Amino acid sequence: MRESRAIGIDIGGTKISIGLVSESAAVEGRLTLPTEPEAGFAEAMQRVVEGIERLLTSAGARADELAGIGIGCAGPVHPGTGTIHNPFTLPGWEGASPVRVLEDAFAVPAYLENDADAALLGEVHAGSARSFEHVVMFTFGTGVGGAALVDRRIYRGTNGEHPEIGHIPVDSSGPECYCGVRGCLESVASGTAVTKAGQALGLADAAEVFERAKEGDPTARSLIERVVVAVAAAFWTALHTFMPEQVVFGGGLMERQFEVFAPALRERARLAERAWGQRFLFSKAELSNEAGMVGAAFRALRPEEVA
Amino acid sequence: MRESRAIGIDIGGTKISIGLVSESAAVEGRLTLPTEPEAGFAEAMQRVVEGIERLLTSAGARADELAGIGIGCAGPVHPGTGTIHNPFTLPGWEGASPVRVLEDAFAVPAYLENDADAALLGEVHAGSARSFEHVVMFTFGTGVGGAALVDRRIYRGTNGEHPEIGHIPVDSSGPECYCGVRGCLESVASGTAVTKAGQALGLADAAEVFERAKEGDPTARSLIERVVVAVAAAFWTALHTFMPEQVVFGGGLMERQFEVFAPALRERARLAERAWGQRFLFSKAELSNEAGMVGAAFRALRPEEVA
């Protein structure tokens, strides 16, 4: 019997990745499009539909053979209604339903998740969360996302809403965030936040801040130290709320800089083990920038695993 | 048909409350014993067994008519094995099983929960969480406990462990906690923490700090302001991790001082509603110091509602 396959889509503020993914997590085809949110939702979705058609043609596959289409999208999104509500990075798309557009175009089931939940599903099925039942994942990129796996299912709050773990407070004297509070994780430890703090020191971007810190520059070091303390605090919060066995650190910033954070995380894991008498693990994400796309495909391949 | 009844027990570091509780949450009998943890587990349990026998006799009830016995206990505890692991306030009782003792003595099912989970069950069945599916509860007393209700079930982490929400970081420059980190909720906002900070100012205890702050004393006010900011941060963390519809504030400190915290909580709830487009409620616990005992009884009356 042939393996089931699904389309996985990862919609970010600047680009959209689409892949044809098999049950064994093989990506049999992939392409990337610009998001151009300002050109509107309808135009973006037209490009997505054409992209899927191209992928299916190259793979010699037909839409009616697909298990479905999964979409991971920069949140907030409403998984229950399949609609987007993200005025921050997808302005003008509020209330739009990629689920409806894709179900109409391809006559297979479609599913919408926020990008952090999709990335976690990718790590659950093909990465560093494969053998765990209780996991928290953070994704550090332009923003900071977070998701939890509980009893092997994606965690949902009230009304099926996804958590917003990127906005937990970690630094009481940190900068103001757009969410309305001071010093939440995203405002201190996102790529954007590190770049902004670095530019105030005359550095080009987050990469240069990390570079200078490694070279021993004291101002850059103290900036990075503050980011490390914030991430360690977020790790501590994850352990003491969801009580997971594994915490995964993903996103572009962690892909490049995980080793800068690992010693502080190791110390926190040891402290928590001593206090509560159980083992806490953490690791770098394995799928790098394809976690969201692969995970979105698994949303369609394993619809029963999400509440 | 007669209502089902159960025994609910709340074991704290200084006292043990025992009640005979009906399905309609009526407390048909109650008594309180000293814990005296230093006299050992066996002696304490002997007093508990005698206390239950007295309660049953006064109510004209027989043990074999009980739905069971629920125990809420100052954690960490392991609900799965029914054993206590709390070197902090019940030293010397590590590994002891009140479940085994009570099942042997009364031949009915017994259940162990940590005290925060028991208090939440009390509020769920008879208090301020009655009509909600997704709830976080904080209990502010000698320490700070926390528990979550998810899809109307008590939240469990890996291996069935309860969260330790009292130890989420809320004040990056706060005092060192016994858990090993600086500025966790318990180290800033427990009754013990407020008393300790007050004593450093020459005040007798937490009650006097709140009293002086209300009278306008600037030092007491700034201490209380710091506690309020910490509690508001914990509220924000609860909203952004579990995404509950209702957050309940219980424990002795909140029973007396909830109104001091309410304006800051109201502001945070409004901010979160604006950011995520959904409603967040909060309220004072309704059952005051009987929440744990009543909730423990409901653990036995509704065993199917806990994972």
At the fourth CATH level, what is the homologous superfamily of the largest domain in chain A?
Answer: ATPase, nucleotide binding domain
Strand percentage of chain A: 15-25%
The average pLDDT score of chain A comes to 95
Radius of gyration of chain A: 19 Å
As a percent range, the share of helical residues of chain A equals 40-55%
Largest interface: A-B, 51 and 51 residues
How many helix segments of chain A? 9
Q: What's the total count of β strands of chain A?
A: 12
Order of helical and strand elements of chain A: EEEHEEEHEHEEEHHHHEHEH
Q: What structural class results from the helix and strand content of chain A?
A: alpha/beta
The CATH architecture of the largest domain in chain A = 2-Layer Sandwich
Q: Largest sheet of chain A at a glance?
A: 5 strands, mixed
Structurally, the number of domains of chain A stands at 2
For this structure, the quaternary state is homodimer
Estimate the global geometry of chain A from the Cα principal axes. Answer: globular
- CA distance, first residue to last residue of chain A: 28 Å
CATH class of the largest domain in chain A: Alpha Beta
Query: Uncertain spans of chain A, ≥5 residues at pLDDT below 50?
Result: none
Throw out a few tags for this protein.
homodimer; 307 residues; alpha/beta; Nucleotidyltransferase, domain 5; 5-stranded mixed β-sheet
